[in-house]
Design a protein that fits this description.
This protein has twelve helices and twelve strands. By secondary structure, it is of the alpha+beta class. Among the domains are: 69 residues, Signal transduction histidine kinase, dimerisation/phosphotransfer (DHp) domain (Helix Hairpins), CATH 1.10.287; 146 residues, Histidine kinase-like ATPase, C-terminal domain (Heat Shock Protein 90), CATH 3.30.565. The strands form three sheets. It has a five-stranded antiparallel β-sheet with strand order 2-1-5-4-3, sandwiched between helices. It has a five-stranded mixed β-sheet with strand order 7-9-10-12-11. It has a two-stranded antiparallel sheet with strand order 6-8. Helix 9 packs parallel to helix 10. The protein is elongated, with a radius of gyration of 41 Å. The chain starts with a helix and ends with a strand.
Length: 440
Amino acid sequence: MLKKMRWHFILAAMAAVFIMLVVVLAGVNVWNYHNTASRADQRIQEIYTFEAGNGADAAGETGSTADASKNSEIPPVNAANTSNPPTGQTETLPPVFPGPGQERDPEAPYTTRFFLVKLDENEEITKVSTDFIASVTQEEAEEYAWNILNGKRTKGYYKNYRFQIMSDNNGKIVIFLNYSMELHSARNVLLISCLMGAVCLLIVFLLVVLLSRRAMEPYIRNMERQKRFITDAGHEIKTPLTSIATSVDVIEMEHGTDEWTDNIHKQTAKMSRMVTDLVTLSRLDEENPFPEKTEFSLSDAAWEVAEPFASLAKAKGKTYTHRIEENLTLCGNPDSIRQLISILLDNALKYSDEHGSIRLDVYKVHGKTKIEVFNTCILEDTRNLSRLFDRFYRPDDSRSQKTGGTGIGLSIAQAVAEAYGGKIKVHSKDGKSILFQVSI
């Protein structure tokens, strides 16, 4: 139980750290992506403004590289300016660079590469400018533009280009800005942040694992004190209970039995069972409840409990059936399995309706051992069935007093199932029956 609780603590801590890292890293990368796109859109807008203001003189007609270089002051891509960028052009930068409120960047004309396609009102191409990019031909530029125009987006990314469709009274202009370097940088930021997040998560995991035991030490000490108290109190209570029972036996020998002595016997027996159950429950909560594990026959253990129970059910007018698969084995303590089955059958006998049905099934399916106990009963509330496993929980106090239950039996059954690494569940389909299912 403590080991499971420790891992629950570790998982909860790691989940909190993971969520925090995801939020922070996602925020950083979303901001970086948005900032990258905003800068690209701003440059595209400046290119459009410059193009619209200068008309045909800004970039020249299709293929007029020399005129474009002379009028736009943005150096076109050619052999000369590719190897040795021209000097002296930083004195009178075109309006495209810099933007409003920005400082002049003398390298901007040489690092910004774009191409554009103009269309008239009838969507006929009137101009294709590829003077400022080397990797795209005029035919490719037209193909890219038609692909964008046939889509639904007016701006976004196409391959390694940021594009935007501008419209005015003269038609449309599709501008493509080469943003491969910026996109590559954004991807690197994403990759590095993910790697750093994974490394941080691993480091935090190791620290939490190392420090979790120290963090849980106060709880572990309290649990150990509680177990010791229950064990010591159990031994201390058993002595006066035995003395009371012996004294009542002496009184009955001298004065005979009456309702008072019978009641004392019932209450002392109930107290003895409760003390025994509490000690058992405390032992099952230990790190290793079965220090000496042996492989035993589950089928035989189930038969040993099921056979005597048939006569008890018949005496109370119940219909009882059982189906126990042969050659089933488990590794653990056979007494604990007998106690588990006995608790579930005893619970079914006590709380099933008059002339009700009880069924025990023990079988194996998909590598899991199943122990199921079904009985008919009237359930007023089926929403809180899981609370039946809470210690001292009584859905009907008056009936519990009549049946003589202590409210610990199902808690012990749950502890036994968990000690084997299994689970116990309770179901009710119609409120007229209940099924306890143990899976080991």
